[in-house]
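Worked Example 4.2. Consider the chain below.
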Amino acid sequence: NNGHWTVEVWSNDYNKWIVMDPYYDCYYVDGSIPQGALELHGKIMEKKYGKLHIITGDKTHPVEKLAGRASYFTHLTVFMNNAFISFCDWTGATHIKLRPLCRKDEFTSGLKVFNKCPHTEIDSDFNWNLNQCVINIKKVDEANAKLKLNLETNTPFFSHFEIETNGKKTEFAKNENILLVWPLEPGINVMKIQAVNSFGIYGRESFIKVRYYPLAIWGIAPWNS
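Applying the procedure from the previous section yields the following structure tokens:
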């Protein structure tokens, strides 16, 4: 059996998943950029080693010189759980209960042991985003110059949203799915939103910019400044 279990860690800095292997105490880079499992799978299968290296402590090894390690990325299976270690059932049939997602592409059709599990060729199914905020405009109240926004996030251990409106931090919301009414001011309005987890770590910033020019500014009705 030449299989291997490892973990991927989400990086806000690189906006992607990165392999961090606790068993071998290593991670993988292409040049200086840490690599995820799907990236490694494609490059190793196509033998596009380039500047692909394994970093272990203060030592660096070219991937092609560790063929056994590289072979681990031939067939990929991921458990779609953002807190696998914290909330995993270790009673013996974990891989059946959690229904892992398997990679299927020109290099692999998956392993027979996972035949009954879903397979995908879509990269975004395999590498979903984390710590992001989605801003949906639900309703425009033109008469009162207000927008009704729906905020959503996919942040594990979510604590709250930090919201900055036109340079002022005005609201903290402690729900992963909220409705927010945003009064607009004449000119350019900017709202910036970040999800914050229970460890105080901020996710990537999302923002919405609205140019609001009341009809009065264009001389259609009186305007008091």
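The first strand starts at residue 7 and ends at 11. Residues 90-96, 221-225 have pLDDT under 50 and may be disordered. Compare this with Example 4.1 before moving on.
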